[in-house]
Hints:
With 159 residues, this protein is mainly α. The protein has one domain (29-144). It has helices spanning 3-8, 10-29, 35-40, 81-93, 95-112, 114-144; strands at 45-47, 53-55, 62-66, 69-73. A two-stranded antiparallel sheet has the order 1-2. Helix 2 runs antiparallel to helix 6 (114-144) and helix 5 (95-112) runs antiparallel to helix 6. The chain is globular, with a radius of gyration of 22 Å.
Amino acid sequence: MDARLSRHWKMPGVLPASFCVLWLVLLAAVSPLDRTYFTDRAPVVTRTPEGGMQFNFRSSEPDLILAERPFGGHYPEPVNMPLRVGLGVVGLLSLPAAVSAMLTSHVLEPSVGLLRASWVGTAVFFAIGSMQWWVIGAIISAFRHRRVPATQPARSHHP
């Protein structure tokens, strides 16, 4: 692989790797929810007698649970404010991944329970987020490496 092609594909690889490292650090910074949280709460999604799904979102719960850790919304235990603000900003930047993880967790919750569903949602979050940031990196890289037509040298008007 020549050096030019290698440089062209660095940006798409750097952004997903940075996304994963950042979220792994955030997962380490937030303590897991107590196990009773997963067993004592009513499910967000319930099955209707007709076979459909009914969503019962509550404002008193976290918006997103990744690897048993709460992100966004209400935190069951105290979390320092700079960490909450940082998590909110980073979560908004990864909105497609966050929405995919929330939907996956909530849809799977009635059949496997929230504890297991949070881990499946985490895998979906990392997969969708990595793809999102790879596409963003590829777009940035494509614009950075566009061929610019060569301009003609300026003519000198010396007598």
